[in-house]
From TrEMBL:
It holds the Pfam family APH. It comes from Azospira restricta. This is Phosphotransferase. The keyword Metal-binding does not apply. GO terms for molecular function: ATP binding. The lineage of its organism: Bacteria, Pseudomonadati, Pseudomonadota, Betaproteobacteria, Rhodocyclales. Residues 22-242 form the Aminoglycoside phosphotransferase domain. PANTHER family: N-ACETYLMURAMATE_N-ACETYLGLUCOSAMINE KINASE (PTHR33540:SF1), TRNA THREONYLCARBAMOYLADENOSINE BIOSYNTHESIS PROTEIN TSAE (PTHR33540).
């Protein structure tokens, strides 16, 4: 391919007199591709291929510097070519948190303790006016992925006027909760596939879409992860430990943990609706069917939260209608 040849030519200039081999390292849900560069002495680097007509490397470079300054372990940038969309980066290894957690779930608490600590560092460095605002417009655009892609494309359902009104009313309540939260730097995809086993732990990847927004967003990405799930008792324990560390660092979390947990759950509802839409879009538009397998886990998180709050009950009933579930009579608290 011409682009792969251009990448190899660029690398040859960055690594003069250093023979190297190139192998795929990973791909993500965007147009970016990553390759592992192995030098003759065994040292490895990562090269990002981000076609400039689809991706802009400048946000990546800006956020990498911000997070590195905060003490978060992100890749070092050794060379850049914004015109071609190439970055040469340090290699944070090839073991994601997800791989490690699936192989050794007994080590989860230690790994998540380190993930919490990195998140607190990142948030403690927050200041307004540096990153794009995670504002009403962006949050709403994300929510709209649910009716556009999950409902219309995946379920093949056209919403009635009454159903659309129910969904819009739920969106308004969700947005009101989200936008009332204190704001910090938000990675926006802080989960097990973007955290690497490295020294120090974790190595943090895929942060180029970072914004300034609700403080619970990254935490709910971490513990209501689309790719791996935990018992709620364990999730509560890890979330409380984060909340305690955040309070110690004087981050603007709610003084009462129940209030923080409610914010966290409502933020999760926004993210889960978005993720269901994104996973449907990845399948139907981009041909990436592997994400469909994770939809049930995301839907389970969504239904659990909606079943817990009276203001979200209409959304739960709408989900029942859309999925033709038999609604069970029960108690609502």
């Amino acid at each position: 391919m011409p682009r792969t040849q251009a990448l190899q030519d660029w690398l040859a200039k960055q690594l003069p007199e250093q023979p190297f081999t190139l192998a795929p390292a990973s791909a993500d849900a965007s147009f970016r591709r990553y390759f592992r560069v192995t030098l003759a002495d065994g040292v490895t680097r990562i090269v990002m291929d981000a076609p400039p007509e689809h991706e802009d490397c400048r946000p990546y470079l800006k956020v990498a510097q911000l997070f590195a300054d905060a003490g978060v372990h992100v890749p070092t940038v050794y060379a850049e070519d914004l015109a071609q969309g190439f970055l040469l980066l340090s290699d944070l290894g090839n073991t994601t948190y997800l791989t490690a957690l699936e192989a050794h779930p007994e080590g989860a608490s230690a790994l998540y303790r380190e993930a919490n600590a990195a998140l607190v560092k990142m948030q403690a460095a927050s200041r307004p006016g540096v990153l794009p605002e995670y504002d009403r417009v962006l949050l709403t655009r994300e929510l709209q992925l649910f009716p556009d892609w999950y409902v219309a494309k995946h379920l093949g359902v056209t919403l009635s006027e009454a159903q659309r009104q129910t969904l819009d009313a739920a969106f308004e309540k969700i947005l009101a909760s989200n936008l009332a939260q204190p704001q910090v730097f938000v990675h926006r995809d802080y989960h097990s596939r973007n955290l690497m086993i490295s020294a120090p732990n974790p190595g943090v990847l895929d942060f180029q879409d970072a914004v300034y927004g609700p403080i619970s967003y990254d935490l709910v990405s971490l513990y209501r992860d689309a790719y791996i799930g935990w018992e709620e008792e364990q999730e509560l324990d890890w979330t409380i430990r984060y909340w305690e560390a955040a309070r110690k660092e004087k981050l603007p979390v709610a003084a009462d943990f129940y209030d923080f947990w409610r914010d966290y759950e409502w933020m999760g509802v926004q993210r889960q609706l978005k993720v269901l839409g994104i996973f449907a879009r990845l399948n139907y538009r981009d041909g990436k069917a592997q994400y469909l397998a994770d939809m049930p886990r995301v839907m389970a998180y969504l239904r659990r939260a909606c079943g817990r709050y009276i203001d979200l009950k209409p959304l739960l009933l709408l989900l029942d209608e859309l999925e033709n579930r038999q609604v069970q009579t029960g108690y609502t608290f």
